[in-house]
From TrEMBL:
Fe cation binds at H149, D151, H205. GO terms for cellular component: cytoplasm. It comes from Streptomyces kaniharaensis. It comes from the Bacteria. Binds 1 Fe(2+) ion per subunit. Residues 131-233 form the Fe2OG dioxygenase domain. Gene3D superfamilies: Alpha-ketoglutarate-dependent dioxygenase AlkB-like (2.60.120.590). Keywords: Dioxygenase, Iron, Metal-binding, Oxidoreductase. This is Alpha-ketoglutarate-dependent dioxygenase AlkB.
Length: 237
């Protein structure tokens, strides 16, 4: 507890490095905002519990085969619209209807966008009128990663909201032109919020590695979860 009674992110769950208290808001690229420890411990716990529910079949957590034939090392579950390489549809791979997009997640993501951009929200395409309708939950078992890609299956330029839970990862935020440098490597820890919109909305990005065992045991999670919340721009039906 701080002297004023507030709980510093990381203390409840124990943070031997003490580093989290010093981590501050940053803007790694124009339109990209990182808010470390944005989710408090309770919010993290309830999101992990929610992910467990969303992971249940039908239309639950599944592996994804890429058109090249390989399997992605993450497993995922989509809400609102089912993502496949490369597009969205209403039916999951097992033929079941995709789970609905939870309205609480929409509220959380709108708050995330407002907190990330503050008064500058009006300058970021689709931020002030953010109406997300998709969440993609990725589970990274130890050793999983995600190659550099653009999130370009949506039909809007509204920002992507990314929430991280569990193991820390190295997230590579690249440029909009190529999969090569320049890029910035960011450490995303449990509770961190990253919003990428505006000029960085179509930047290449990926997860270079996770750091196994860095998740606090209190979270009851093996590996890493990432939730991205997006606006599809697709017609409701
Ligand atoms: O796991 C992450 O932090 C990124 C996930 C991602 O890029 C995606 O789902 O498109
Ligand atoms: Fe992505």
């Amino acid at each position: 507890m701080r002297e004023d009674g507030g709980v510093i992110q990381g203390e409840l769950f124990g943070d031997p490095s003490g580093a989290s208290a010093a981590r501050e808001r940053s803007e790694p690229a124009p339109g990209a905002v990182l808010l470390p420890g944005w989710l408090d411990d309770d919010a993290q716990l309830s999101l992990v519990a929610a992910c467990r529910e969303w992971a249940r079949g039908p239309a639950g957590l599944h592996s994804v085969r890429m058109p090249t034939g390989g399997m992605m090392s993450v497993r995922m579950v989509s809400l609102g619209w089912h993502w496949f390489p490369y597009g969205y549809r209403r039916v999951a791979d097992d033929g079941a209807p995709v789970k609905p997009f939870p309205s609480e997640l929409g509220l959380l993501a709108r708050r995330a966008v407002a907190d990330a951009y503050g008064p500058g929200i009006a300058d970021i395409a689709g931020a002030a009128s953010y109406e997300p309708d998709i969440a993609i939950v990725n589970h990274y078992p130890h050793g999983a990663k995600m190659g550099l890609h653009q999130d370009r299956d949506e039909r809007t330029d509204a920002p992507v909201v990314s929430l991280s839970l569990g193991d820390t990862c190295v997230f590579r935020l690249g440029n909009t032109e190529t999969r090569t440098r320049p890029w910035t490597d960011l450490e995303l820890r449990s509770g961190d919020l990253l919003v990428f919109g505006g000029p960085t909305r179509l930047a290449y990005h990926g997860v270079v590695r996770t750091l196994p065992g860095t998740a606090d045991p209190a979270l009851g999670l093996v590996g890493r979860l990432n939730i991205t919340v997006r606006q599809s721009g697709l017609a409701a039906e």
